[in-house]
Amino acid sequence: MSDLTRSVGIVQAQTAVFDTPLQLASGAVLPDYQLCFETYGTLNAARSNAILICHALSGHHHVAGRYTPEDKAAGWWDNMVGPGKPIDTDRFFVVGVNNLGGCHGSTGPSSINPATGQPWGSSFPVVTVPDWVRSQARLADRLGIDRWAAIIGGSLGGMQTLQWSIDYPERVAHALVIASAPKLSAQNIAFNDVARQAILTDPDFHGGDYYAHDAIPRRGLRLARMLGHITYLSDDGMGEKFGRMLKSGDYQFGYEVEFEIESYLRYQGDKFSDYFDANTYLLMTKALDYFDPAKDLNDDLVAALRKASARFMVASFTSDWRFSPERSREIVKALVAADKEVVYGEIESVHGHDAFLMLDAPYVNLMRAYLNRVAEEVNA
């Protein structure tokens, strides 16, 4: 059996409840909250082999394994996390956590507000990447982890990784930032706003309090996902997979699904609207928009990264136009200027932004080589 097909097996989600109020960047305060998380592997006696996986916009704590033998799909990064895989659970204790504001077990808009006995809905406060990092640090305290051997994240997860390295430099040995950016471009903010408008203008949104109306803004969420999914793929990748293939073999001269790519996008939108919460989508995209660790330092990314003490691995993908290699190179350039140790890999791939979830051989080899180094340090 290939070491890339081995699994952590059957897993179980856990919940950590925090009754200490959490001050948010917006000025709002969460009086209490819970985080849903999973762990894989064994924490060593020195508590030095822990790795935190930070998820992207639509991700969650279920990183690897299955909940039952009958589950059709494994965790979202099961191809990278497990025994003998690049993030090797025979050597590391791996933690995946669902961020605050999420819809997979952590406190979010669909959770019950203890002050009202009703779902938070529109009253749930906006959360930011630094807010997530503070809540994750409390989880690390609860787990007895003073210092992460590594923190790893792709896309929005990479932003959390960067923020961790800046806010808690003494707690991060290695930071792996994959397919990410030091802040969003105007184009990316624009994509996010169009997606949010699709949700906000859905008649079933009810100002964010659709739970009370027993409704789901399904059309808006579906459109948001379809738009987002286009930006996660590359033109070459879509062309290679779908081209201009027609479902029926000829034009129908109407507005129903005719091209295979249309069918694929609608399927993705329908599936997403069945399991993701619209308010959570709004929160996650706002956290993306707001991320800017250099904002309070006169836009000086070098000054922001000087606070870090971690060693870095930064990876990008040639066909990723949403978080292009140029954006990763901005991070690398700033790290070098800040006199930080960094390894950079620019991976040839046709998979677009989604490449960080795939198994392109150069990417897998880069991850494996870097994490072998981390494991050697842990065991030294």
Characterize this entry briefly.
The protein is of the alpha/beta class. The protein contains 10 helices and 14 strands. 34% of the residues lie in helices and 15% in strands.
Highlighted features:
alpha/beta, 8-stranded mixed sheet, Rossmann fold, Rna Polymerase Sigma Factor, Chain: A
Layout of strands and helices, then pairs:
Layout: E1 14-18, E2 22-23, E3 29-30, E4 33-40, E5 50-54, E6 81-82, E7 87-88, E8 93-97, E9 112-113, E10 118-119, H1 129-143, E11 150-154, H2 156-167, E12 174-178, H3 186-200, H4 218-232, H5 235-241, H6 260-275, H7 278-290, H8 301-305, E13 311-317, H9 325-337, E14 342-347, H10 361-379
Parallel strand pairs: 5-8, 5-11, 6-7, 11-12, 12-13, 13-14
Antiparallel strand pairs: 1-4, 2-3, 4-8, 9-10
Helix pairs in contact: 1-2, 3-4, 3-7, 4-6
